[in-house]
Batch of 4 targets.
Target 1
Amino acid sequence: MLKEGNKAPDFTAIDQNEEKVKLSSFKGKKNVVLYFYPKDMTPGCTTEACDFKDNHKKFKDTVILGVSLDSPERHQKFIAKHELPFDLISDADQKVVNKYGVWQEKSMYGKKFMGIVRSTFVIDKKGVIRKIFPKVKVKGHIEEVLQALKEL
């Protein structure tokens, strides 16, 4: 289980354009908000993505990366539909969600299943996790993330 103060696990994955994104490439340059969400085009995930979009200008010196298991093509549609100004990572092989411990057992309507637990990691320019938001509630989350960035 990752803790605040740990070095952020590095990864290389593909974005919506099938371009490789390597977390460590931002080290020394930008803070990173790495947010994990269950699925493109669903109500909570759309609200969260649009909250990041609507507040994008407030994220100075910060890269926002959304991560789900959705395909690059689905990410492209999601980005186009909602005019998202940041990249979405496709983690179909579940390597990133497993490194960050967000692939967990969930339950809905009494059924148990594995899925992404909505979580956000604020990573500083040195590659250190400064804040972890587990089991995120979408409402008010942007304000929490922006406050965490102010404290860096």
Target 2
Amino acid sequence: MLPNLANLFRYRGLIQALVARELKARYRGSALGFLWSFINPLLLLLIYTFVFAVVLPATHSNDIEPFALFMFCGILPWTWFSSSLSESAGALISGGNLIKRVLFPAEILPLVSVLANMVHFVLGLPILVGFLVYYQRWPDAWDLVWFPVTMVVQLIFTFGLALILSALTVHFRDIRDILSNVLTLWFFSTPILYWIKEAPGFSKRVLDLNPMTHVVVSYQEILFFRGPIGHWRWLLATGGMSVLLFLAGFWLFDRLRDSFAEAV
């Protein structure tokens, strides 16, 4: 297991090349190309803003106004998370020709999916910055120190789940269909469209069991709410859990590695 873990660093050049290939392939043949990295989150924001600001305007409190900005602080990282898991689930199957090469490290494939979607997350940040400027909400400089920490926690957590899903989907293809429904439930179980403080007591305890709650709330506190970051203990605890999840996911992936070439 440890030698295979070391491969993640040793093959960093290959990972970079595959991420670049994935990004180019995604928009190959489209007229706007990489501009879709900016347009997609903007369109998603406009849709949710229309629903919750025009169709259902009374479903949120004034404490999270402007609601479009509050919502975007959660939708952007969620899109990175959900897209990574959806693509990682089938990463080994779609990359079967690479897996059948004896020396190819298969764990790179789910990592490429996670990193490619992280690039889209980063490319969507200028839109978020534009909204921060428009609404004149300036994050505190000290709060921004926690932004890369939150990104690292989300990266480790997402990659750990991606390893588990990609390894299991090779043998259980139904996981990809189940995953879409699970992600829908997970989305509404994460305080993206509502403020976590508005959740009733029991619901709040349930939300606290969701690791993405603490990732999303951390982004909201860093970028939207003014004042000290009160969620940092939860974030660090989520980070520790994410490391354990990553190690467990890599262990499972390593145990199933020899069966991939035949199963795909």
Target 3
Amino acid sequence: MVALKIVIPVILLTLLIGLITIIIERKRGKTRRGYGMFGGAVCPQCGYPYARHWWAPNLGTVKYDRCPNCGKWSRVPRASADELARAEAAFFGEEGELPAQELSEEEKLRKRLEESRYEDV
């Protein structure tokens, strides 16, 4: 009985903190892409907007994270919604997609081979 008097308030407090966190995250500025709980960052080298990783070491107000585009490691703070929107517009264009690249014949065949790997035959 004594354990329940301790455990129940702890569980309720944890749920309340989780609910407050969810509400705050939903009220933040919206961008075209979701950046998750740790927020988004803009790579200082290539300008690519990406979600900060949970496993990246936290250095106070910044994380030491690896850019998925260029592969460089750097200290990146959490970017604001305006910064992320500008980086998305600069990198992806207005359509929200990567710029179309012309593939050579060999690259097209290689891509078709990779995509056919998971087809049922």
Target 4
Amino acid sequence: METKALFDERRSVNFFDKDKNIEESQIKEIINLAVLAPSAFNLQPWRILVVKSEEKKKRLFDLANQQEKILEASATLIIIGNKEGYADANPVWDEMLQSVGGNQQMVDGAKQAASFLYGSTDERKLKFAESNAGLLAMSIMIAAKEFGVDTHPMSGIDFDGIHKEFELKDSESVVMTICMGYYDKSKQLYPRRPRRLFEDISTII
């Protein structure tokens, strides 16, 4: 699908067909395409929980203001940002060392810069995790549409409750959830509401 068509046709679907399942192999394809999203220093400070079992859906349902989408969608992704994704433990640094031909000085310089830019305050850590994971989230929704799969991003959720219920690490932040499945065509979506355009949101300085 052409890029313009992807943006024109992607909608946040409120109603999913419970009888249409997404195979795990297709979810894998979507995510493997979406991870081409950019991230700071290519650190990819993110993780995804794919909530697919009925048991886990019910647990998430109660933490998402009991929105029916959670139960109807074939899967819901919990997008998680890593607030310490700049640290030495990230295996991407080893990959970077190989990519730059073993230039340890270059990698050490990048580590120092990343540590200062993203790890010097709690606010910067959170911004780092959420801004990068947000890029992945949008990439997932566009990639899903390429495969004919519908999505709905959700931030009206109990972030702390999900963090606790799904036993995330202290260094991890729940960024959003994304319902994923196929639009139930027996229901009607609300018309797409107008967007504020360049003249409304942009200032050339």
